[in-house]
From TrEMBL:
Source species of the chain: Ganoderma sinense ZZ0214-1
Keyword line: Membrane, Transmembrane, Transmembrane helix
Protein's name according to its UniProt entry: Transporter
Transmembrane segments: 77-96, 102-121, 157-176, 188-209, 221-241, 261-279, 300-319, 339-358, 378-395, 401-421, 472-494
Chain positions covered by the region annotation Disordered: 1-21, 436-455
Upper lineage: Eukaryota, Fungi, Dikarya, Basidiomycota, Agaricomycotina
């Protein structure tokens, strides 16, 4: 693929078109030797580019270490890659009225697309050598000098979209966790039960949200509790369906039209923070290590997380057929309450990790200096609580928008960026200039001068031809992801929300 081409002479330095600017290197060179710097990149985490000064690499490293996702262990990375899959989408699968012959292929399809899109982000991060999605977008649509205005506008747009997505998703999870418990709270108080339940739950997770980064032990433990609660909910659900006693009720009146169908599978395997997590994993590589251990392979961790998620979600699609079998007994109230509590915990304890990774609000400098309190975090938390308490008809529309944003950020954004950066942007590096002058050579070329090494040139061309087929396959796959899956899914979702389909 274009984003991760390799050769015997360079690492991560080839563009799919093999074109390069001639104003940087000697145009008479037949082959340009680019030193292999992948080991240094793995050790020092150098996210530099052709247009940066040497100090930019240190700035990138410092940015990773000071971000909300600092260098983490492989176990923590795996946790944060797996946890988003075992949330609301998975809890809703047993409530979907989809035939098994359609549900199982749809779930496996979106699981495969999740692996594919994560790999796209991974290769884009390596290609442009940036540590987060914001920087990748800037390198794609506003690269170079003299575009400060466009870069600033894009930066604010990306941060705003991520902020809206994080806060809305956290509010939806908080709302649904309250919905699952409302039936077990008395409604005889002067204050509405929803408000009381919401206050109790947000007070429970407030200490976890006070952590600054995902490396905090409280956030890690909360994420493990969320995954463990889903595993317990999954076990109870399996038990009830094997006994044909009840259909687990996770679907809520707070959800909109898009959630009762195949889009739920797309949301189940929606991903976020892929690039920061990859940067965090690379940031743990010890200096002078020639090659990361297999346990530090981001591609392996990503694949294993999806495989485990499929193992914990695929059995749920068989319950549609099981639900048609006559019930053998009625469920006990204790068993129903247990399922509701585990489902609520799975959603509730994922809220802190979602909000912690949200960008800070652009508050004026006097406001930030006036107090030592984290004003931005407090405002984000209050906004989340306020959104979770909105009326049901407003929440239905908001839930559809959340699903739509998750779909676009997971399946459309990486494909669009890949196509733009590899088809409409100038390549970052040089392999073989298309107009290389191989005739004007010195009488006695130096043995160390790679541009006069004909054997090396032939080897390079052979390797490029071998990679041509793979690059074409990847390009076709990305176009399929962008147009039929992304474009078609967007059109269908909009029409469904408008009530036309």
């Amino acid at each position: 693929m274009a984003a991760t081409p390799r050769s015997s002479t360079s690492s991560d330095s080839f563009d799919s078109r093999g074109i390069s600017p001639t104003d940087v290197f000697d145009p008479s060179a037949a082959l340009i030797l680019v030193p292999d710097t992948e080991d240094a990149t793995a050790a020092a985490f150098d996210f530099s580019s052709d247009e940066e000064d040497p100090g930019q690499a240190d700035l990138q490293v410092e940015r990773v270490r000071n971000s909300s996702i600092p260098p983490l262990s492989s176990t923590s990375i795996y946790l944060y890659l797996l946890a988003p899959f075992l949330k609301l989408g998975a809890l809703l699968i047993p409530s979907l009225d989809i035939p098994l012959r359609a549900a199982a292929p749809a779930l496996l399809l979106f699981a495969a697309l999740s692996v594919f899109t994560r790999h796209l982000w991974y290769m884009l991060a390596r290609y442009v050598r940036r540590t987060d999605m914001e920087e990748i977008v800037l390198e794609t649509f506003a690269r170079g000098r003299g575009r400060e205005g466009r870069r600033m506008a894009l930066r604010h747009a990306v941060r705003l979209s991520v902020q809206i997505m994080r806060v809305s998703l956290a509010a939806l999870y908080l709302r649904l966790s309250v919905d699952m418990l409302l039936a077990y709270f008395p409604n005889v108080l002067a204050v509405p039960s929803r408000l009381v339940t919401t206050i109790v739950l947000v007070a429970l997770i407030a200490p976890v949200y006070s952590a600054r980064t995902l490396a905090s032990k409280s956030v890690v433990y909360a994420s493990w509790i969320s995954v463990g609660a889903y595993a317990a909910w999954f076990a109870c659900t399996i038990y009830m369906y094997t006994r044909h006693i009840v259909e687990p009720i996770a679907y809520s009146s707070s959800l909109g039209k898009l959630w009762d169908g195949t889009p739920t599978f797309a949301f189940t395997f929606a991903t976020s923070s892929t690039v920061p997590l990859y940067a965090s994993l690379k940031g743990t590589t010890e200096p002078m290590t020639p090659k990361p251990r297999r346990s530090k392979s981001f591609k392996l961790l990503s694949l294993l997380s999806v495989i485990l998620a499929v193992a914990f979600t695929l059995p749920l699609v068989f319950f549609e057929a099981s639900a048609k079998v006559p019930r053998q007994e009625l469920p006990s109230a204790e068993l129903k309450a247990t399922v509701a509590v585990f489902g609520s915990i799975a959603l509730l304890f994922s809220v802190p990790s979602i909000l912690i990774t949200a960008p800070a609000l652009p508050l004026p400098l006097p406001v930030r200096r006036a107090t030592s309190l984290p004003v931005s975090k407090v405002l984000v938390y209050l906004a989340t609580i306020g959104l979770a308490l909105l009326p049901a008809h407003v929440t239905r529309i908001g839930s559809d928008l959340v699903l739509l944003l998750a779909f676009l950020s997971t399946y459309v954004a990486p494909a669009l960026i890949h196509i733009t950066i590899h088809n409409f942007r100038r390549p970052l590096s040089i392999v073989i200039p298309p107009t290389a002058n191989t005739t004007s050579r010195p009488a006695e070329p130096s043995a160390s001068d790679s541009r006069h090494d004909e054997l090396l040139q032939r080897k390079e061309r052979t390797m490029q031809r071998r990679r041509l087929g793979r690059r074409l396959i990847w390009d076709v796959a990305v176009w399929v992801l962008l147009v039929p899956v992304g474009g078609g899914g967007l059109v269908w979702a909009v029409q469904r929300m408008l009530g036309n389909w």
